[in-house]
Amino acid sequence: MLLNISILGPQASGKGTQARILKKRFNFFYVEMGALLREIAKENSPLGKRVNKIVNQEGILVSDDVIELVLEKKLSGVKSDQGIIFDGFPRISSQIKNLNKILSKLGRKFDLVVFIDLPDELVYERISGRRICSKCGLIYNIANLSDSDKEKCQSCGGKLIIRKDDQEEKIERRLRIFKKETLPVINLYREKKMLREVDGTGSIEEVAKEIEGIIKSKS
Ligand code: AMP
């Protein structure tokens, strides 16, 4: 499986959940841009402080030079027999250049964008119940958890927390940025016939099945 693909969609569309399923199913090398940045934001360095302010407090996009740095470092770990799945990248037109440059350095080309679409009202509904494991980053929704499971990650035992950028006033800004910056990226790939669109309102299993079908048809 040597496809190099990207999963894009609005907040809480299920990108991260689906990317993790695909990673297991097809042995993809997984590049979760938001999680990589949240890790950097914890560092007590000038870069860590800068990223923390942007990601956790402002909810806006990190500059392309930082993204390029993070990507180069992460992709140094990819094995030659693995395809790559990018989650939340490229998120703005200027990052398409970065993506193509870095893949060509690795002797690869970009194959496909899977766009998981979700209406705004469901974005708000899902984000209000979203919890994330503070240790391994696994994503949950409290609507699917019994009272006794709402505190701890069922995979690693880490504490479940609300993401700092999931507060209501920040969601609106993030969704606005998605529409202004990321929808043009999606439209561009649609024009190039490199886009497959998936309805994100289905269950995790339904969406996963549809995306698996897309991947199989490409490989
Ligand atoms: P996510 O976990 O995908 O919702 O991303 C969380 C946050 O990380 C975003 O709101 C941005 O601040 C930052 N981020 C993630 N991906 C990118 C990207 N490709 N370019 C710039 N900033 C990003």
Protein described:
The longest helix has 24 residues, at 168-191. Strands 2-3-1-4-8 form a five-stranded parallel beta sheet, sandwiched between helices. A three-stranded antiparallel beta sheet has the order 6-5-7. It is α/β, with parallel strands linked by helices. It has a single domain (4-119, 168-218), classed as Rossmann fold (3-Layer(aba) Sandwich), CATH 3.40.50.300. A hairpin with a 5-residue loop joins strand 5 (130-133) and strand 6. It has helices at 15-26, 33-41, 46-58, 64-75, 94-105, 120-129, 168-191, 204-218, and strands spanning 4-8, 29-32, 84-87, 112-117, 130-133, 139-141, 160-161, 195-199. Helix content is 49%, strand content 15%. Bound molecules: adenosine monophosphate. The site of adenosine monophosphate has 17 residues, from helix 2 and helix 3.
